[in-house]
Amino acid sequence: MANIINFLSLEASDNFLLFWLKEILIAVAIFALFWVSSLLIRLFLTKWAPRLTSFTSTDLDDRILQRITPPVCLLVVLAGLYYAVKSLPFPEKTHVAAAGTVFILNIIVLTNISWRVIDEVLSWYGNRLAERHGVGVDRQVIPPLEKLITIFLIGIALMITLKHFNYDILSVVTALGIGSLAIGMAAKDTLANMISGFTLMVDRPFRIGDRIKLASGQWGDVSDIGLRTTKIKTVDNTVLIIPNSELCNTTLINLAFPDPRGKGRVNVGVGYESNVEQVKNILIEVALAVPEVLPEPAPDAYFISFGDSALDMSLFFWVEDYTRIFAVTDMINEQIIKRFRQEGINIPYPMRTVLLEKEQ
């Protein structure tokens, strides 16, 4: 009887060992399959994918491939480990703990891959901002954007992990929504200026160094574009600080677009006895004699209107750099008054004729 019991015990032990050996072999096979897949993926990402990305005009895709290749291969290996552990007939608690640990590792690696891709895109976009708006703009825009995206990725990873372990994420999402609403209401002006700052960066109505004129009549050179405000340096060496939300909702003139050329205007009144054609010719000759006035487009002179005491004339001219309009206007004015005196052309003072009637 004892021999029979021993035999049955040995047979059960052998069956148990065979069962576990079979399950372990299946798990090892699953892991080996994913491991070989990771090697093939690495080979594709390092050998074949760069040949495809070489046809593009930017190196962004090459940099992304270089950054994500190691974590992508690791993700495949960890995915194989997850399914291998999940295939083993562990007790429920042990199975949940082991598979859950590997799942968390997979989420961490997947989040890291997403962050690497976004980091390369932001770095590329920051370089473009620096080229378009000048050095310093990228350091103002990219770091806050990186922090916001990091918080977003961590929040998504946390919700996926909680969902996997059957936790109710509705309360978490509700709390985050209420908190975001409270923060948004408390800092709505700041958020509006920050969003407007991003809009100015993307839409690019002006760049650092451009001269702009506001609807209020104030004008100057853009010295800084921040997240909350934009600073404009006026000609009297003062700084005008304007909230970005106001700049996004107002009409302005960019004197530096579409090119740095600028158009100047000189208004002058001559006596009614003057020869209009002669005055127009003198104005054009004076403008062309100034070296900084462009011959093309050529200067033009016009008889604008009949004034109270003079014939109103206007001279229009172009200069290569809009910042030189005032200096060139000064030179043209000096030459105009000099030529008018030489030609005997009168610039009259305002005159009024008053008639007095004597009472009878």
UniProtKB/TrEMBL annotation:
Q: What is its main location?
A: membrane
Q: Transmembrane residues, as ranges?
A: 24-44, 64-84, 96-118, 169-187
Query: Out of the domains of life, which is the source?
Result: Bacteria
Indicate how the chain sits in the lipid bilayer.
Multi-pass membrane protein
Which Pfam family is one of this chain's hits? Answer: MS_channel_2nd
| UniProt keyword annotations, A-Z | Cell membrane, Membrane, Transmembrane, Transmembrane helix
Q: Name where it's found.
A: Cell membrane
Q: Domain Mechanosensitive ion channel transmembrane helices 2/3, which positions?
A: 147-188
Give the matching InterPro entries.
Answer: LSM_dom_sf (IPR010920), MS_channel_1st (IPR049142), MS_channel_C (IPR049278), MscS_beta-dom_sf (IPR023408), MscS_channel_2nd (IPR006685), MscS_channel_C_sf (IPR011066), MscS_channel_TM-2 (IPR011014)
Instruction: Enumerate the spans annotated as Mechanosensitive ion channel MscS domain.
Output: 189-255
Decide whether keyword Transmembrane helix is in the record: yes
Occurrences of domain Mechanosensitive ion channel MscS C-terminal (ranges): 266-347
Question: In which family does this protein belong, per the annotation?
Answer: Belongs to the MscS (TC 1.A.23) family.
What protein name is recorded for this chain? Small-conductance mechanosensitive ion channel
